[in-house]
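Ticket #4471: structure output looks truncated?

Reporter: J.K.
Steps to reproduce: submitted the chain below (247 residues) through the standard prediction queue, then opened the result file.
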Amino acid sequence: MKYILASIRFILLLLTTFSIYFAWWIISFIIPNKSLWRQVCFRLWARSFSRIIGMKIEVIGSPPKPPFFLVSNHLSYVDIPLIRSVVDGVFVAKSEIREWFLIGRIVADMETVFIDRQNRRDIPQAGEKILEKLDAGEGVIVFPEGTSTKGEEVLRFKSSLLEFPAKTDFPVHYMAISYRTPNNEPPAHTICWWGDVTLIAHMWKLLQIPHFEAILIFGDEAIQHSDRKELAEILWKKVSDKFLPIL
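Returned output as attached by the reporter:
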């Protein structure tokens, strides 16, 4: 039965994703406010994705309103539709995603800011794009851990991308993500995507779960600091305090 459920969900995800993307592509040639239309389509896709995979979302605290700079821990690709179901913004993502078949094109068209963390010269370019998004009144979402984890703890935050809010004294919002699954489905292996498991193999396992809960906990206040390393340390402690470890 669970394989039938996974198959139906997979087909629905494909149909939903390409239908919304096609609608976005067509209407983007007509509508003058492309940014607004992109946000509407991205939000519609995220909420549809969440419903199809059986994700029930609990929000604790108040999400920030654009323009904002928001940091979070990172557990899975599921974080993307989870966050976008609640807040509007663009993500900062590793440059390898741009090369993924079909997904890379769609992600790029959603105005994702790509960064090659191995190339230090790429960081200032990404920073300029981040500032452009903020100046345009958009939200920017960053995962400072630099990778997804199995949810035992929050990894120390990398400070490179925090250079830009630090030098402009831009307030940084923060949140923590956690997941709960049925007792026989450990979230560290069914929701969290880490290690050497491929995307398709992990998603196939995820789609077999009847339902699960996602918890978004937003911080109470935005943080400002002129030193990026100090800012990273403060934000890491704040997110760690809010984080509910995945067992």
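Triage note (M.O.): checked the attachment and the full token line is present. The first strand starts at residue 55 and ends at 60.
Status: closed, working as intended.
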